[in-house]
Specification:
Number of domains: 4
Oligomer: single chain
Strand content: 15-25%
CATH class of the largest domain: Alpha Beta
CATH topology of the largest domain: TIM Barrel
Largest sheet: 8 strands, mixed, barrel
CATH superfamily of the largest domain: EAL domain
Bound molecules: ligand C2E, magnesium ion
Strand order of the largest sheet: 18-19-21-22-23-24-25-26
Length: 707
């Protein structure tokens, strides 16, 4: 403190001046001439936590300095004290409990000139806030300068106020070149105005935007940046700045593109792969919905491609695939997308209405001759087509269905296309489901046999019953065979279910035998079952199991069917059955293509005329003629003949007149549960006079249809 400032003190009393030292918020220390502490004011005690009596006589640096205190400053202080000179400096000191704080120290020597004992007066002002602020600014400045990310600061009119060195490194523009310009100088032109509108909207609403953007360097090269823009508001209203930071992610982007290519494209043809096309199909399906246009999905598979590979080598095969891939993508027009999804399989998405001409064209694009390594080859393909929304399923489903259709096309030979039929597919789905249900029903014993009597009109004798299967479904009740046998046909359940019928019929016959009744029974056996190698053993096994059942009372009814086409093996098989003592009937006779052949060449014991001819024979001359000729032929080959579906007395009478004496139908009785058979028979025998004419027959109540 310059001595002249002390001048007014001469007019003020010393006690009041001492009060100033006590009252001030600055810290005041008085040192003796050796620099040891003599006195501190209360502000010092309060701020540092040291009590005067504890520190009196000590050197301040001993207890005020700490780990962050600049050692050089302490040495300098010592030098000043030694030289008795005034000084001023900033110092980092520590409180009694170790907290650091910055002080500005002003120290002046005092002594004889002022009329006091020699020593020093120190005034310390706490400046931690300023120091920290300064430090923050320094850090910020070094972040700005050293940041690896580019930083642009622009004003509220988006004029560049400052950029950092990384900005120059990334963009190629120097700071001077861009100051005052709009950052739009970097624009690559890749993004739409809508993109920028959304960007500024986000800044207006949230003071922030972050995203990827393509910009252009000074040298014209495009680069990708991950950009973050923040709007920074200052205290004064309506003043703000923009701080944009970005990093160059071009390398990452390119790498990503590489990965994307590897994940989505087929390296051989360069076409998209399965993953990509499924994704595309999902989008195309949505577009088709919103634009109300149809979509065609094709599945194309090269015919006999393995042969090309095997005979001409894999290289030729690969080259052929490349050429075909190229042709498909170049020749099918803009609204077609092609992918290679497997070895020799391609998927096509064709947008809009397409016709068979288009499908043929696709096949011809493939079948145009190819020259591979100077070898001319002709390749054909099979094409499966499905159409959305007719085939209303998801992307995977559409590809799967086109694939199904492709298989059907293949079955028809080379160079064919097939359009998927959703109805047919639904039927197959239901069939699979029903088969599962039927297998379960077999396990739970839900099937049962009903029996329908067969009548010999000559003596009104019931000469047998036909066993007819029913499914006693837990929810649907009694299900007739027409509703489940078609599903079982050609399935893995055909033989197990057939064997169940065989076993259970014999078990029933055995039961009747034990009840004193020998009732002949016709058992329906599917042609595939009877022609199966296991059938004879199954039959023999059943007969063996029920030795009291007379095999001569069993008739196996076989439908005319393609399974019997090989009449030689069919004949052999029937002969082997008959060798076990059973009889054979040809069921539904007249409905197949080769009835007459069967009649001539198969060893059968009974011909059953199909009910479809009987139904209308009284009104339809053709049907009547068929019935007559079947009866005539059967008689020629000396086979007994039975008419099925005889519903009325008039039918029965007519049949008898035509020479058919055996009938079965509702006019006698409907099929009945096994438990009703014996009571029904008893009733029949007691109420029927055996030598009456057919016209006198009365069906027992409940079963007959009114003869
Ligand atoms: P199917 O062997 O020709 O049996 C005669 C069918 O005609 C039976 O139908 C019977 O109920 C019906 N029917 C009998 N009289 C009349 C009549 O006067 N009018 C009419 N409209 N129908 C009559 P169901 O029981 O529905 O059986 C249908 C077909 O299912 C059978 O025709 C047979 O081919 C097959 N089937 C039935 N049970 C079995 C079986 O256990 N195994 C095999 N493989 N097939 C069976
Ligand atoms: Mg039958
Ligand atoms: Mg029949």
């Amino acid at each position: 403190m310059p001595p002249e400032l002390n001048a007014p003190a001469q007019n003020i009393d010393a006690r009041r001046l001492a009060l100033v030292a006590r009252a001030t918020r600055n810290m005041i220390l008085i040192l003796d001439e050796a620099g040891a502490l003599e006195w501190v004011n209360p502000a010092f005690e309060t701020h540092t936590g040291y009590r005067l009596q504890d520190i009196q006589g000590r050197m301040p640096s001993e207890f005020l300095a700490g780990p962050g205190t600049d050692r050089e400053s302490i040495t300098r202080i010592r030098r000043h004290l030694f030289c008795n000179t005034e000084f001023e400096m900033d110092l980092l000191q520590y409180t009694a409990d170790g907290r650091p704080y910055w002080v500005h120290t002003y120290c002046t020597p005092v002594g004889e000139a002022q009329g006091v004992k020699p020593g020093f007066v120190l005034v310390q002002t706490v400046i931690s806030d300023r120091k920290n602020g300064e430090r923050g600014l320094r850090i910020a400045a070094s972040v700005f300068d050293r940041s690896h990310d580019a930083i642009i600061i622009s004003d509220h009119k988006n004029r560049i106020v400052d950029v950092n060195p990384s900005f120059t490194r990334i963009t190629g523009y120097t700071r001077e070149e861009v100051l005052g310009l709009n950052p739009a100088i970097l624009s690559s032109g890749r993004h739409s105005t809508a993109f920028y509108r959304a960007l500024w909207q986000s800044i207006e609403q949230h003071d922030h935007w972050r995203g990827e953007i393509w910009n252009r360097r000074k040298n014209g090269e495009e680069f990708a940046e991950l950009l973050s823009i923040s709007r920074v508001h200052l205290e004064s209203p309506a003043t703000y700045y923009h701080v944009a930071t970005f990093s160059d992610i071009t390398v990452i982007k390119n790498h990503q593109l590489e990965l994307d290519r590897a994940a989505n494209y087929d390296p051989l043809t360069g076409l998209p792969n399965r993953q990509w096309i499924e994704e595309r199909l999902r989008a195309a399906r949505q577009e088709a919905d919103s634009n109300k246009h149809p979509l065609v999905v094709g599945y194309l598979d090269i015919d006999g491609f393995k042969l090309i590979n095997d005979q001409l080598g894999k290289e030729v095969g690969d080259e052929a695939l490349r050429i075909i891939g190229d042709r498909l993508s170049n020749r099918l027009g803009e609204r077609a997308t092609i992918a290679r999804i497997g070895g020799d399989e391609f998927v096509l998405i064709l947008e809009g209405e397409r016709s068979e001409t288009d499908y043929r064209r696709i096949l011809s694009v493939v079948s145009d001759p190819i020259t591979v390594h100077k070898t001319p080859i002709i390749v054909t393909a099979s094409l499966g087509i499905t159409r959305y929304p007719d085939d209303d399923t998801d992307a995977e489903g559409l590809i799967r269905h086109a694939d199904h259709a492709m298989y059907s096309a293949k079955e028809r030979g080379r160079n064919q296309f097939q359009v998927f039929d959703p109805g047919q597919h639904e039927w197959q789905r239901q069939r699979r489901f029903q088969l599962i249900e039927i297998a379960r029903a077999l396990e739970h014993d839900e099937f049962e046999l009903h029996f329908q009597p067969q009548l010999r009109m000559a003596d009104s004798e019931i000469f047998g019953f036909e066993a007819l299967i029913r499914w006693n479904h837990p929810e649907k009740g009694l299900v007739p065979p027409g509703l489940f046998l078609p599903t079982v046909e050609h399935s893995h359940l055909e033989i197990p279910l057939g064997n169940w019928v065989l076993r259970n019929t014999l078990a029933q016959m055995n039961e009747w035998h034990q009840a004193g009744q020998e009732i002949p029974v016709c058992i329906n056996i599917s042609a595939a079952h009877i022609m199966d190698a296991s059938f004879i053993d199954a039959l023999a096994d059943c007969l063996h199991r029920y030795p009291s059942v007379n095999p001569g009372k069993i008739t196996l009814e076989v439908l005319e069917s393609t399974a019997l086409e090989d009449t030689k093996s069919a004949g052999n098989m029937l002969t082997r059955c008959r060798a076990l003592g059973v009889q054979v009937a040809l069921d539904d006779f007249g409905t197949g293509f080769s009835s007459m052949t069967y009649l001539r060449s198969l060893p059968v014991d009974l011909i059953k005329i199909d009910q479809s001819f009987i139904r209308n024979m009284l009104s339809d001359a053709n049907d009547r003629a068929i019935v007559e000729s079947i009866i005539f032929m059967a008689q020629r080959f000396q086979h007994p003949v039975l008419a099925e579906g005889v519903e009325t007395l008039a039918h029965a009478v007519a049949l008898k007149e035509m020479g058919c004496g055996l009938i079965q139908g509702y006019s006698i009785a409907r099929p009945m549960p096994a438990t009703e058979v014996l009571p029904w028979l008893l009733n029949w025998r007691t109420t029927t006079c055996h030598d009456t004419e057919i016209s006198d027959l009365r069906a027992p109540p409940g079963h007959g249809a009114g003869i």
